[in-house]
Amino acid sequence: MSLESPIIGYTLGDQAGIGPEVIRKALEQCSGSAEYRLIGAAIDCRPGLPTQDTAKAALEHLEMAAEALRSGSIDAVVTAPVCKEGLHRVGFAYPGQTEFFADRLGVSNFAMCLTGKRLTVALCTTHLALAEVPEKLTSSEIVRIGGLLGDFLRKQGKPTPRLAVAGLNPHNGESGAFGDEESRIIVPAVQQLQEQMQWCAVSGPCVPDCVYRDAAEGAYDGIIAPYHDQALIPLKLLDFDNAVNATIGLPRLRVSPDHGTAFGIAGKGIANPSSTIRAFQVALSSVS
Description:
Blueprint (H helix, E strand, L loop, with lengths): L6 E4 L8 H9 L7 E4 L13 H20 L4 E3 L5 H6 L7 H8 L6 E5 L4 E4 L9 H4 L2 H17 L6 E5 L14 H16 L4 E6 L1 H9 L5 E4 L2 H12 L4 E5 L4 E5 L16 H12 L3
Parallel strand pairs: 1-2, 1-3, 3-10, 5-8, 6-7, 6-8
Antiparallel strand pairs: 4-5, 4-9, 9-10
Helix pairs in contact: 1-10, 6-7, 8-9
């Protein structure tokens, strides 16, 4: 398959939501340098009223998208928003699309990455209680996520990415006064990343209440974050309308707009397509 004309697949998500609208609006602005291919088909449904049929179609189309990625018939895929509650009712057994695509493609080394115009973050831990984060955070996991993030950024046009590893505790623990995870877990990980990834510039542990501002102002290309909300609060504050969720580590990229189905505004023609537009841009960048 020639990279001069990559094939970007896309799904419509739960079609009772805003997926069909934002996909249509985004495709109107997409570059002609790629072929854009619908995975699955449009179904009859009422906007704003999700049903078992819309959930079944969404799941079927995710399965088709995963198979297309696995077989190489598409080079990347943009998945429109789905309703996890609806998917779970029809047999979806995963926390989210990240884990689903990794399983279907047989990938164990993967991560959730959120990227917007000002911030790009990769998460060392995702959906678990904050009290569980310190025991789940390990040096090896930070190193693993750092490798995936560095590779992703290179594919996005950053040949020598600048990575920051955020600390876990306020003020990096004040030399152990309130937490030793920085010295015990994060410092060894940063040293290992610096040794293994000499094509990157790796800094850390960086004080968490400053590093996101520094990255937003251009000091870093990506941040390795110890837990979910530390990363997503600044990202959604700064990049809410253009952030996308990328499953990094897959042989071919899966990316989606970083918002939900928005059933409440479906069918009204007012959905903002900015995040979906960026999702297509990131997908295309990964194969260009």
